[in-house]
């Protein structure tokens, strides 16, 4: 297994030739409900398109038809995805299920096999654009753009890549993978194991709003380190760093040294502490630069009345750690892990509902460059995305925002963790040097 210093660069797509069909609209197989779907204040701020790819070693001759027909069937249950966004009388985003415009579906053929594409954890933008279809006529037009697109790309050795573009306002990662796995169940001729619930009113804001601390989550960071100039001056590059079990054990050992850890910590917390510190150092943050780490935390089980098991939507909040770069670079890494653990532990029903109220009242301000958002996809059940020819060999994404980092499962060994980062080229070089464990 490669060490973290052996970073994997996203493969350039200049040599990849993909021939696409004209997109067709796939509609639910049967008549579905009309009306409108309420979107929560969390959904409102998650209005970005997330692209993912599922890479299979093999498929069948009629794989594209199998996937397309199963999509038509699964949309009967996930019918809002065939609709479009609209605005309520209050100006809020809602899903218009009367606009049954369907899901654009594309068939494609590539002139390569899966091995030649290498590590697919993070895709070069050029590769992503060829494997995931996005309607070029609806860019920056949220009320016209499809909420979901699908592309099936056949490879030269019988392999297949399923590329998905899904509007995040429709679902978080947990809900999205349930949808994909439901789609796969139908492709295999099996009944749905999870029936989706589209009622999001359980997450409506309270009236009047009841916003409570801690208030660090709402702080807007000043750019005293002139990070904006660095990001404007240099090319943004994507890298993935592989941590096997030996490296993860070493990271946990570092994270518990210094005596500040008063409890057992997870590999996620230890690795998050290391990545946050490393990124801040690589970006050359000044000691008095405020820096923030924020982590999506699922609160489904935290509510007195839990959301239904099949809830299809966003049920995450973003607790944060806030300090100056000087404070946390000088402190033992065990102190950083304690900060992170405390932030995660703060998430309960009152915290979640307070954040829902805040977002409804004040909206969302874009994170500053001094912020790092770390999302973990290591527990997403994409191993169950079997459309009839086995589980995906690899799962990947692309177009990672500048302030984001992804933790993903290793594709050779599922116990490994792949850390995906995007940084200016000089900072990425420094990260590679610092992550020598």
Shape: globular
Low-confidence stretches: 1-10
The rounded Rg comes to 22 Å
Structural class given helices, strands, pairing?
alpha+beta
* Rounded mean pLDDT score: 91
Number of strands: 20
- The end-to-end distance, rounded to whole angstroms, is 14 Å
Largest sheet: 8 strands, mixed
Share in helix:
25-40%
Share of residues in strands: 15-25%
Number of helices: 12
Secondary-structure blueprint of this entry?
Elements: E1 8-9, E2 18-20, E3 24-26, E4 36-38, H1 41-45, E5 49-56, H2 63-74, E6 84-87, E7 93-96, E8 103-110, H3 114-117, E9 122-123, H4 125-131, E10 148-154, E11 160-167, H5 173-187, H6 227-233, E12 236-243, H7 245-256, H8 267-282, E13 290-294, E14 297-298, E15 316-317, E16 320-324, H9 325-330, H10 333-345, H11 349-362, E17 371-376, E18 394-398, E19 404-409, E20 417-424, H12 425-434
Parallel strand pairs: 8-10, 9-18, 13-17, 17-19
Antiparallel strand pairs: 1-12, 2-8, 3-8, 4-7, 5-11, 5-18, 6-7, 10-11, 12-20, 13-16, 14-15, 19-20
Helix pairs in contact: 2-5, 7-8, 8-10, 8-12
What's the quick description here?
With about 425 residues, the protein is an alpha+beta fold. It has helices spanning about 40-45, 65-75, 115, 125-130, 175-185, 225-235, 245-255, 265-280, 325-330, 335-345, 350-360, 425-435; strands spanning about 10, 20, 25, 35-40, 50-55, 85, 95, 105-110, 120-125, 150-155, 160-165, 235-245, 290-295, 295-300, 315, 320-325, 370-375, 395-400, 405-410, 415-425.
């Amino acid at each position: 297994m490669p060490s973290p210093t052996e970073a994997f660069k996203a493969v350039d797509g200049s040599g990849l030739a993909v021939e696409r069909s004209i997109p067709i609209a796939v509609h639910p197989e049967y008549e579905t409900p009309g009306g409108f779907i309420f979107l929560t204040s969390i959904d409102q701020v998650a209005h970005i398109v997330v692209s993912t790819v599922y890479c299979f070693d093999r498929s069948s001759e009629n794989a594209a038809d199998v996937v397309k027909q199963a999509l038509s069937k699964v949309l009967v249950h996930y019918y809002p995805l065939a609709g479009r966004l609209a605005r309520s009388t209050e100006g809020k985003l809602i899903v218009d299920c009367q606009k049954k415009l369907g899901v654009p579906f594309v068939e494609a053929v590539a002139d390569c096999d899966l091995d030649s594409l290498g590590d697919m954890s993070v895709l070069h933008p050029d590769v992503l654009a060829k494997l995931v279809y996005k309607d070029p006529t609806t860019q920056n037009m949220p009320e016209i753009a499809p909420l979901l697109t699908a592309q099936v790309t056949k490879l030269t050795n019988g392999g297949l890549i399923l590329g998905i573009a899904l509007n995040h306002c429709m679902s978080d990662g947990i809900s999205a993978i349930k949808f994909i796995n439901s789609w796969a169940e139908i492709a295999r001729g099996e009944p749905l194991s999870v029936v989706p619930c589209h009622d999001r009113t359980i997450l409506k804001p309270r009236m009047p709003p009841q916003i409570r601390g801690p208030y660090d989550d709402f702080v807007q960071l000043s750019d005293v380190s002139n990070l904006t100039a660095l990001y404007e001056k240099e090319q943004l590059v994507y890298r993935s760093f592989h941590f096997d079990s030996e490296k993860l054990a070493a990271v946990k050992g570092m994270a518990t040294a210094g005596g500040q850890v008063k409890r057992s910590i997870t590999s996620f917390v230890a690795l998050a502490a290391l990545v946050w510190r490393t990124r801040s150092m690589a970006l050359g943050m000044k000691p008095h630069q405020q820096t923030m780490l924020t982590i999506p935390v699922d609160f489904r089980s935290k509510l007195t009345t839990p959301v239904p098991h099949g809830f299809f939507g966003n049920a995450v909040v973003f607790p944060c750690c806030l300090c100056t770069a000087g404070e946390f670079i000088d402190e033992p890494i065990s102190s950083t892990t304690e900060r992170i653990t405390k932030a995660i532990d703060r998430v309960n029903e009152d915290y979640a509902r307070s954040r829902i109220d805040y977002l409804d009242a004040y909206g969302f301000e874009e994170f500053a460059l001094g912020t790092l958002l770390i999302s973990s996809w290591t527990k997403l059940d994409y191993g169950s995305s079997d459309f009839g020819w086995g589980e995906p060999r690899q799962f990947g994404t692309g177009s990672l925002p500048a302030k984001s980092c992804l933790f993903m499962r290793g594709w050779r060994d599922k116990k490994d963790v792949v850390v995906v980062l995007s940084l200016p080229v000089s900072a990425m070089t420094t990260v590679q040097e610092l992550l020598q464990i």
